[in-house]
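Review box. Two proteins, two foldings.
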Amino acid sequence: MDQNPNTGLATRKTAAQRQAARRQKLRVQENQRRLNVWIDASACNALRRMARRDAVTQSQCLERLLHQAEDRIIAALELDSPEWEAYFRFDHTASRSPYNPRPKESQTR
């Protein structure tokens, strides 16, 4: 609970305030990011089954699968090659893959 600056009495946070604080803590202290996606029902069920089988959360299961898949991709890339550079180039504003870039302006004229 927080204190009311005017009265000095404890005030309760709303559910939205508690959730916002939790998300901020995850983002900052635990370096977590929220992923909000729609996936095929069969993929969702597979994720649930795999997480239950391994006694982990769905988040932990998905993280493990992503890391395993990326490890296979990286193992296939030649160190410091153009493909390596393209794979690790990250532009959070880009909506396209580095393997399918937007045409350069000189190519569109």
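Next protein.
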Amino acid sequence: MHAITEPASGNANQAARAAWRRRVARVGSLIQLAFAILWIIRGTLATGWPGRLPLALALAAGTAALAAWGTAATRGLAPRPSGPEARRLERAITTATIAQLAISCALPVIVSAAGRPDLTITTVAITIGILLLWLRARLATPGHLAAGILLIAVPGALAIFLASSALTAAAGLATAAILTASAITGFRALATGTLGRPAPAA
């Protein structure tokens, strides 16, 4: 009996991971684009460039259009997973995401109190990078390994050499670019069937 149930349990776990990999590729990509829009606007406005407001709005609109494309291209490809194994994974993913969001909300207050509000984007980007690396390790999500490393390394390196509005601009635009590329990777992997297809409804 043990020899029969153990492979069945392993198959259920693999199926749950595959289902959540697809779910994160869709929903996670939409969340990444929402953050990207925020950092595009903030980063562009901090540049001091002439016409920065219309430029920020145009870039944000373009990113929103990508989100609309991704939503349409992946509709029906990542239903919410069900079953005991899927619920266990959902609890872990939800806990990790809430922790990242809570830290992201606290960091602006902390760095502002320390007299370095320009570190807000850098520190939040690092927390997102850590979350993406965790998702990659847990689910083998597409694009998250490169994005996670870059979200930690690039804003961190910029913080060494830049400060004030220059740091806000550079970190904001770099973070937005990394998140956008990661989101496109997730959408494409899901839309092209690289991540498999959900089982037909019974």
